[in-house]
Design goal:
It is built from 1 helix and 9 strands. The chain is mainly beta. The chain has a single domain, classed as Jelly Rolls, CATH 2.60.120.10. The chain has a 5-stranded antiparallel β-sheet with strand order 1-2-9-4-7. The protein has a 4-stranded antiparallel β-sheet with strand order 3-8-5-6, with no helix packed on it. A hairpin with a 3-residue loop joins strand 1 and strand 2. It is globular and about 35 Å long.
């Protein structure tokens, strides 16, 4: 493993999607950022919660319903979301979903 970079040739192949549940793989984690690859089985849900950091969601595979503050949105391959700190958010997979979460831990204020 190289400490200067993280290289994943195909995130959709790297992701593990379980038959039931949600699996995560931390791809990168340091003082400034954390990148997590999620694999959701159909029907699985991350219930609404908040995080103290700005973050992005990038959907690579599947269809999902998103809660973003008071809004409901749909997500599919290619959907990108930026969330401000403390925004209540949640994800419910309608099909197998592969999603990349990037948390920006040391953002300027």
């Amino acid at each position: 493993m190289n400490d200067a970079y993280v290289y994943v040739r195909d995130l959709t192949q790297q992701a593990k999607v379980p038959e039931n549940g949600i699996l995560t793989q931390t791809l990168q984690n340091d003082a400034r950022t954390k990148v997590i690859l999620f694999g959701f089985a159909p029907g699985q849900e991350l219930s609404a919660h908040t995080a103290p950091y700005p973050a992005t969601l990038t959907f690579l595979k599947g269809e999902a319903q998103l809660k973003l503050g008071p809004d409901e949105q749909r997500a599919g391959p290619g959907t990108f979301v930026y969330m401000t700190p403390n925004l209540e958010h949640g994800v419910k997979a309608e099909t197998e979903v592969v999603m990349l979460l990037t948390m920006i831990k040391n953002a300027a204020t």
